[in-house]
Amino acid sequence: MEAYLYLLVKAIIVMLDVDFHSPDFYPECGITYVIIGARYMNKWVFIKHKRRKSYELPAGHIDEEEDTDTAAQRELQEETGAKKYKIVCISTYTVRENNKLRAGRLYYADIEIMGGARDEKEIDDIILSDSLPARLGFHHVQRVLFNYLQKYLSGRINSAREDTL
Fold it and tell me: How much is the pTM?
């Protein structure tokens, strides 16, 4: 019971504020990760992370020698096995959690061909879905990003860079 109350109190105390900016916006805190909302056969692609045992949008940290576009392409290929796709940066976003600011870039990808090699050490499974899976990792942020992706896909947001990768 104590553990449950601790987690409940911790969830209430953690305050997240997610803001969306133009794709070329570069915040003072820098950009440390990329997240890709990918679709294949008109379904959203979610990966199941082995260590966290939850479903997530494909994502990852930016390696030292990479720019965000290269990192997004690498993560999409490593985590989903995407071989042929179109990908575009649709937003830079910032997350303020307990007064600490972090930032990432949000991409949208339309996968035409899958079947390439995946990172089997990190990725346990891939599912295709019309909506968010029940067992969602980083659910506070992923829900907000997923809603933004849906608005982008429906044409209610048009903030993508003109140059598709």
Answer: 0.85
